[in-house]
């Protein structure tokens, strides 16, 4: 591992309890501080077993230290929280699946709003095929595979309904316009709108994948 966190001396199952003398409990608190020290360094207080260690780690130009969360089962084995399994019957699985899909969709919409707000800097985290591949675990898991596949399907469905020409959402938008005004949009206008929509989508794909490999937006 060549991450700055590893070079600083952090090991698997270490717990960061403070960064820059600020007590922390959650990952986003670490990111909030490290973002302010891009290309610099931060002081870490790390709990390893019963010992509290002091370390200094460099911060990458994207504001990351190179640390990752453990899996839920690893947290369970450490006694940090308890993981329980709920089993559903055939018929009960359908409403449970719809509820989970609704929760995932709401979460994604909330994240999408952050991307549209330049002040959050969330646009810098947009990724393409490489980012999608990285969310799959390194070891095979049917549960992870189907969960991630379902999540990607929800994302694609939501994106497809955006009112952008060349997407289904764009077609719905023009159809609604025709229903309300009783007039069909000009064919030439529709043609140019489709071109603009395609350019926009291709540009977004180029940016996302460029961000993956070259860090264009970071």
Task: Please render the helix and strand layout as text.
Elements: H1 4-8, E1 15-19, E2 22-23, H2 27-34, E3 41-48, E4 51-58, H3 72-77, H4 90-116, H5 129-134, H6 142-160, H7 168-181, H8 187-214
Antiparallel strand pairs: 1-2, 1-3, 3-4
Question: Nutshell version of this structure?
Answer:
This protein has 218 residues and is an alpha+beta fold.
Would you mind describing this structure in some detail?
α4 (90-116) crosses α6 (142-160). Strands 2-1-3-4 form a four-stranded antiparallel sheet. The protein is 52% helix and 11% strand. It has helices at 4-8, 27-34, 72-77, 90-116, 129-134, 142-160, 168-181, 187-214, and strands at 15-19, 22-23, 41-48, 51-58. It is globular, with a radius of gyration of 22 Å. It has 218 residues and is an alpha+beta fold. The mean pLDDT is 87. 7% of the residues are buried. It has two domains: 4-77, PDZ domain (Pdz3 Domain, Roll), CATH 2.30.42; 90-214, no CATH class.
């Amino acid at each position: 591992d060549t991450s700055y966190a590893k070079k600083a001396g952090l090991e698997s199952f270490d717990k960061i309890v403070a960064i820059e003398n600020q007590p922390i409990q959650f990952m986003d608190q670490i990111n909030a501080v490290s973002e302010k020290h891009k290309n610099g360094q931060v002081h870490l207080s790390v709990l390893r077993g019963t010992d509290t260690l002091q370390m200094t780690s460099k911060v990458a130009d994207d504001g990351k230290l190179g640390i990752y969360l453990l899996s839920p089962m690893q947290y369970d084995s450490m006694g940090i929280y308890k993981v329980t399994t709920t089993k559903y019957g055939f018929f009960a699985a359908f409403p449970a699946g719809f509820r989970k899909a609704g929760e995932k969709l709401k979460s994604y919409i909330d994240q999408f709003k952050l991307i549209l707000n330049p002040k959050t800097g969330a646009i810098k985290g947009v990724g393409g095929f490489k980012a999608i591949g990285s969310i799959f675990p390194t070891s095979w898991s049917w549960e992870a595979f189907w969960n991630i596949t379902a999540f990607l399907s929800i994302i694609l469905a939501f994106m497809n309904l955006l009112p952008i020409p060349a997407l289904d959402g764009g077609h719905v938008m023009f159809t609604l316009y025709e229903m309300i005004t009783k007039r069909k949009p000009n064919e030439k206008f529709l043609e140019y709108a489709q071109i603009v929509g395609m350019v926009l989508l291709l540009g977004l794909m180029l940016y996302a994948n460029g961000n993956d490999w070259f860090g264009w937006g970071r």
